[in-house]
Amino acid sequence: MLSKKTKYAIKALVVLGRNLTQPPMQIARIAEEEHIPKKFLEQILLDLRNAGYLYSKKGAGGGYSLNKNPEDIYLVDILRITDGPIAMLPCASIKFYHKCEECHDEVTCGIRKAFIKVRDASLQILSETSIAHIIESEKTAASLL
To answer: Staple partner for 63: which of 24, 67, 70, 89, CB 3.0–4.6 Å?
Structure first.
């Protein structure tokens, strides 16, 4: 299940992507628009800034803005920043691999094989979906209403 931290990170990036040509947005405004607890959002935005996805400006007119184009921000990267591994099992993880304690033989383990397929399918979708894709999808859905 997607954590609230990841969901809120994506929502914040979408808001900032929609306001790309505007001055930096204050945390309070993002929190209010997206119904995200402000203190929690502060930590999420700090993590995204430290990872190079956001720019922050202090003082009057300060706030956060995207440091990358929405087309260059992929969900796979955001999930790894906020939640860590994509794989549901440590033995199926690419970047966070470690052997399962109870496993007798990884080579023949049917559970591992199944969850590698799940990981690969997830990676494909998350690696192809950018913040720009989400913004466009929302615009399309809104125009159909």
So the answer is: 24
For 5-30, the pLDDT digits (tens) are 999 999 999 999 999 999 999 999 99
- Please tell me the predicted confidence (pLDDT) of residue 99: 86
Cα–Cα dist 24/16, whole Å: 8
Give, in degrees to the nearest 5, the angle at Cα 87 between 8 and 104: 150
For 38-79, how does the pLDDT look when each residue is reduced to its tens digit (9 = 90+)? 999 999 999 999 999 999 998 887 899 999 999 999 999 999
Give residue 84's identity as a one-letter amino acid code: G
Exposed, middle or buried, 2 (CB in 10 Å: 0-12/13-18/19+)?
exposed
Helices (H), the chain: 4-18, 27-34, 38-50, 75-83, 110-128, 131-143
How many Å apart are CA 97 and CA 84, to the nearest integer?
11
Whole-number Å distance between alpha carbons of 13 and 78: 10
Q: How many Cβ atoms from other residues are within 10 Å of residue 122's Cβ?
A: 16
